[in-house]
Every structure is written in structure tokens, then in C-alpha cells.
Design goal:
114 residues, three-stranded antiparallel sheet, YjdM
């Protein structure tokens, strides 16, 4: 199996390199290798905080709004610092442990990068 990306037009996996271009043998579509590398980066989800800063795994964030904990009477207060976050796919895109509450998921729109 090749390490080249599938064809953007017909989604064929049988692509190959030919003189700096990637070629699809099924539909004949050709594109530059540089564009293929950029499209691989574009496919990754970018998670941003409430102020537009890009978040990464292991970052620390601060909660910017009181958040009710579902199924409990406790509240995550404004200004609570959360260390060592993990980014995940889904509605709540941050997994973390909050001291005194435990493991939970947060939405990136309610945090700012610390």
C-alpha cells in the first residue's frame, strides 16, 4: 500500500508519484505533492479557545464562565485553572480532570488559554 493520499476527485487509493506530481490511475487526475501535504494538515481539526488561541494537548486553560456540572449540585467557578488538557472529537472537545470535581469534558468556547 502506498503512503500517498487518496485521489481528491474519485477517492481512489491507488495513487502514485510521477515527477513531483501525484497521479490517480483511475480518473487521471494529477496534483502537486506540496498541495497533498497541505491538504493532510487541513484535515486535522483545530480547537480554539473563546479568544481564538489554538489549543494543544497538555495546555493549561482557565474557565471563563460558571459551569454547572450535569448530574451534580457542584459548579466549576470562573477562574478555575485546568492543567494538562486532552483534545478529543465530539461536542465537548476537551477532556480534563478538575481538582475537587474529577474527570469531565469541557467545551472550548468556555475556556481561555492560560
Amino acid at each position: 500500500m502506498s503512503n500517498f493520499p487518496p485521489c481528491p476527485q474519485c477517492k481512489s487509493e491507488f495513487t502514485y508519484e510521477d515527477g513531483g506530481m501525484i497521479v490517480c490511475p483511475e480518473c487521471g487526475y494529477e496534483w502537486a505533492m506540496v498541495a497533498a501535504a497541505e491538504s493532510a494538515e487541513i484535515g486535522k481539526k483545530v480547537v480554539k479557545d473563546a479568544y481564538g488561541n489554538i489549543l494543544m494537548d497538555g495546555d493549561s486553560v482557565t474557565v471563563i464562565k460558571d459551569l454547572k456540572v450535569k448530574g451534580s449540585s457542584s459548579v466549576v467557578k470562573v477562574g478555575t485553572k485546568v492543567k494538562n488538557i486532552r483534545l478529543v472529537d465530539g461536542d465537548h472537545d476537551i477532556d480534563c480532570k478538575i481538582e475537587g470535581i474529577g474527570a469531565m469534558g469541557l467545551k472550548s468556547e468556555f475556556v481561555k488559554k492560560a
